[in-house]
Design goal:
Blueprint lengths: L8 H4 L7 H29 L2 H13 L2 H9 L6 H7 L6 H9 L2 H12 L8
């Protein structure tokens, strides 16, 4: 029987391993491709959206913006400072801001009073 040759330590180290840089460059290439495809998809969606729809949704957003709510609250000059500061927390929650902006003036006053005296706690 012949001797079985076992690989020595030097022979084991000669096996070629993929270079680390190759894996990174493959991943970078894949990410760039994905980014490009996503950008093209986004541009197609934007192109399909008509300008009037975009303008209309922008107007809706502006109608219920935080700035509009602050302007509406600033009209009530006779409100105590502490009450005003409590009420100013409310518009940061979108649902409360929309409700405040669409309700009639007499309801706004009642609502602000309930916030100021602590009976309205849904805004937190």
């Amino acid at each position: 029987m012949g001797k079985v040759k076992h690989p020595t330590h030097e022979e084991k180290g000669k096996e070629k391993k993929p270079k680390k840089g190759d894996k990174i460059s493959d991943m970078t290439f894949a990410i760039r491709e994905f980014t490009e495809v996503s950008r093209q998809r986004f541009e197609r969606r934007v192109a399909r959206t008509s300008g009037s729809c975009v303008g209309e949704s922008k107007r809706k957003i502006e109608r219920f913006s935080l700035n509009k709510a602050v302007e509406a609250l600033s009209m009530y000059k006779d409100m105590l400072r502490t009450a005003y500061l409590k009420v100013m927390k409310v518009p940061y929650k979108k649902e409360n801001r929309v409700a405040f902006l669409v309700m009639p003036k007499d309801r706004k006053i009642e609502w602000m009073d309930s916030i100021a005296d602590g009976s309205f706690r849904d805004y937190e």
